[in-house]
Amino acid sequence: MLVQLLKFLSLNASWLTAGVLLTFVSSFGQTFFISIFGGQIRAEFGLSHAAWGGIYSLGTTASAIVMIWSGVLSDFFRTRIVGGIVLIGLMCACLGMAFISSAFLLPVVIFALRLFGQGMCSHLAVVAMSRWFVANRGRALAIAGLGFSVGEAFMPIIFVFIMSIFAWQNLWLIAALLSLMAVPALWRLLREERTPQAMIKEGTSLGMRGKHWTRIEALKHPLFWFMFPALLGQSAFNTAFFFHQVHFAQIKGWDHFLLVSFFPVYTGISVLMMLLSGWALDRFGTARIIPFFQVPMVVAFLCFSIGDNIFMFVIGLVFLSMTSGANATLPNAFWAEFYGTGNLGSIKAFAAAVIVLGSAIGPGITGFLIDGGVELEMQYLWIAGFFVTCVVALYIGVERSKSQLVFIPGQGS
Question: Is 412 left (phi over 0), alpha (psi -120 to 50) or beta?
Fold first, then answer.
């Protein structure tokens, strides 16, 4: 197995590294990164939890709407070209945050960070891996997802430390520089990129009923809507947890730096689960695994709700990371396996818009409830119940649809 893995990495190093690069740079538009500046931003512009959450939700919702159309570009243009434009857009968004002078501009800057960072960088990486690799799709998605994990593990610690030395605005200049440096790196890695058109013509991965589904067909199929709560909920409440990390530490009576110091535990388990789920879906298929991948979320939010010491927090973080790691591979492989790769960019763009919308709803609702007197501990108890519903919905939807899958032996990449 190790020999096969090394051979796979050697033959596909440039494409896989491009995926890692895109997911890593997406960090600058991810909630776990933006949220570490939450206290400074609220203090700078005199914002309440609800106001900051509302601004974040507004910008994120707008980016979700635009993602429905911008994500389709990956079906028609090379990742090398679209990725370069996206990274330049992300650089400009980081510069905008560095020089922002008014709270009225915050929704615009958040919109750009979320669209180019969380939205398009992530989208381009997972669509490319899902389309370019078939027999090893899970493995490729898991490897590309390492960029997310490295960002989650080290960005908060490094930037929280640097923020104790420099003004928070200067840290966004560093983010802008790194985004710009990623452009020539991506172009070099993908100088021999496979084209979407070529992959579509090869028809390497068909979906249910042995065909490539269009986005309209996918949206008319019941399975998409059984998947909808899981897409929305995972994004909404995972985002809400990281978004309110400063407030969470305060109500628990812990130092913020102590809280973020445990994030490498989250990352380590996420990486392990990412690799394990990638291997499992290549071996068993997505249909057998995906109905249960959000069960750990129930345990995680119960721990966050009722736990009153750092040990319970770490246990919750471990369970949260189990689903987060699997989330980097299973849902992304799900779209290719059930709906085919012919219009994958279009279908995944809509799914990505739902995910981005979820990340807008989560901080907005939880921030509103905090200001209304409903503390996070009670909210997290309700959230645990919500994920029970997601697991049931996923199980019903997949069981009803998996008989329509057509498996073609001998396909590989």
Answer: beta
CB 371 within 8 A of CB 48: yes
CA dist 299 and 265 (Å) reads 17
3-class SS shares of the chain: helix, strand, coil, % to 5: 85, 0, 15
Answer yes or no: are the C-beta atoms of 383 and 237 closer than 8 Å: yes
The DSSP annotation for 292-351 comes to: GTTHHHHHHHHHHHH--SHHHHHHHHHHHHHHHHHHTTHHHHHHHHHH-STTHHHHHHHH
Q: Which residue has the tokens 């104790």?
A: 164
Q: Which two tokens stand for residue 306?
A: 């009722």
Q: Using alpha carbons, list the distances in angstroms from residue 355 to 115, 183, 317.
A: 12, 25, 21
pLDDT at residue 36, as a whole number: 86
State residue 406's pLDDT score.
Answer: 64
Burial (CB count within 10 angstroms: exposed 0-12, middle 13-18, buried 19+), residue 255: exposed
Task: Write b or e for each residue in 147-157: b if 16 or more Cβ atoms lie within 10 A of its Cβ, otherwise e.
Answer: bbbbbbbebbe
Is it the case that residue 203 has pLDDT exceeding 60?
no
Quick count: other Cβ atoms within 10 Å of Cβ 395? Answer: 14
343-380 b/e with 16+ CB inside 10 Å = b? Answer: bbbbbbbbbbbbbbbbbbbbbbbbbbbbeeeeebbebb
Contact 377, 251 (CB under 8 A): yes
Structure tokens at 316: 């919750």
* Torsion sign (Cα): 383, 49, 356, 326: negative
Helix (H, G, I), strand (E, B) or coil at 411: coil
Among candidate residues 19, 383, 404, 367, the one with its CA nearest the CA of residue 193: 19
Summarised one tens digit per residue, pLDDT across range 7-46 is 777 777 888 899 999 999 999 999 889 988 888 898 888 8
Please state the pTM of the whole predicted model: 0.74
Measured CA to CA in angstroms, residue 190 lies from 90, 178, 243, 259 at distances of: 19, 18, 34, 38
Cα separation, 248 vs 241, whole angstroms:
8
